[in-house]
Amino acid sequence: MNLNFSGKTVAISGVSSGFGVAITKRFLSLGANVFGCDVSDTAFSDLERLGAVLARVDLTNSSSASAWIEDVENSSSGVVDVLINNAGGVAGQTKKPIEQLTDEEWRVVIDINLGSTFSLCRAVVPGMKRTRSGTIVNISSGAALQASMTGIQAYCAAKHAVLGLTRQLAHELGPFGIRANTVAPGFIVTNEATQKQWDAYGQEKQKVLLEQIALRRLGTADEIADAVLFFASNLSTFINGQVLSIDGGK
User: Fold this and answer.
1) Catalytic site includes residue 201
2) DSSP reduced 3-state for 244
3) What's the pTM value of the predicted model, to 2 decimals?
4) pLDDT of 179-222, one tens digit each?
5) Is 13 in a helix, a strand, or coil?
6) Which terminus of the chain, N or C, has fewer Cβ atoms within 10 Å?
7) What structural domains and CATH numbers belong to the chain?
8) Which residues of the chain form beta strands (DSSP E)?
9) Contact at 8 Å (CB) between 81 and 133?
10) pLDDT tens, 134-174?
11) 212: closest CA among 201, 227, 223, 228?
């Protein structure tokens, strides 16, 4: 069966690096009308040349998140068919004991990962309810299922919460024909931050980590994008409230 998103409006957050770039390119290649946002415009020019419509948006501001979805709806068919919540990260933070963590450090990571997901879901649902259709795919993490390799408490808590939100939305929105699922990537080097983290482990710890993966390698951003496409496509029309771990087998 061929995947085809022609005529579909797809909204993707966090498009400037890593998973976001790969996901955006995948949907564009399959005919989707792709609208993306990020707080940084690092990769905008390349994606815009491929046909994506992009905007700089601070998704930690819920009003800005809602306004972006309104702009997308006004610029397209009037409704978002597929929402991909990919924005996230650790805001440059590194591991430290919880007693040394400030309120601001906690808040910013929660807002980037959980707050943005909540705001965009809330914004797209009215349109999806009108058409009684729609798909939400939230990018979580292996840290949604266990302790985070980053050691960052807020990141682990936020990713667990994204999974919980997804399951609750699946239950709430299913009667309206709207599906919500989660992709949980394992450790994948996709940008400067994850490359720095991987390098910091050193050869010995890298070897140990790879031996814990059944396929004995790290994954790629394209492999995450493929999982997102599956959840967004007509290949998964009876799959709802699920989490798909893309980690090579643990």
Assistant:
1) no
2) strand
3) 0.94
4) 999 999 998 988 777 888 888 889 999 999 999 999 999 999 99
5) strand
6) N
7) 9-238 (3.40.50.720)
8) 9-13, 33-38, 53-56, 82-85, 134-139, 178-185, 243-246
9) yes
10) 999 999 998 888 988 888 999 999 999 999 999 999 999 99
11) 201
